[in-house]
């Protein structure tokens, strides 16, 4: 699953956060992450927690078909 951050300065923090939850994360570019999540619903829950911790760090979720804001 692809994640795009509106502010690339949060990229490392989000990658570290997701790795701490057992996710496999690769940095695809500035403000872009690839996540091999076990499920979309699980990833969306993690991103809701992220949004509480970092409300200014907007994340867009894409799976190649459509994009969704987290």
Oligomeric state of shown chains: single chain
H/I helix tally:
2
Look at the structure and give the mean pLDDT: 89
DSSP strand content: 25-35%
The largest sheet has its strands arranged as 2-3-1-4-5
Q: Tell me about the biggest sheet?
A: 5 strands, antiparallel
Q: Which stretches are poorly predicted, pLDDT < 50 over at least 5 residues?
A: none
- Count every beta strand, where a strand is a DSSP E run of 2 or more residues: 5
Rg, rounded, reads 11 Å
Name the overall outline.
globular
> Structural class, from helix and strand content?
alpha+beta
Helix content: 25-40%
What series of H and E elements makes up the topology?
A: EHEEHEE
Describe the structure.
- The protein has 70 residues and is an alpha+beta fold.
- It has 2 helices and 5 strands, in the order E-H-E-E-H-E-E.
- The protein has helices spanning 11-20, 40-53, and strands at residues 2-5, 24-29, 32-36, 59-62, 67-69.
- A 5-stranded antiparallel beta sheet has the order 2-3-1-4-5, with helices on one face.
- A hairpin with a 4-residue loop joins strand 4 and strand 5.
- The longest helix is centred in the middle third of the chain and has 14 residues, at 40-53.
- The two termini are 13 Å apart.
- The model has no long low-confidence stretch (mean pLDDT 89).
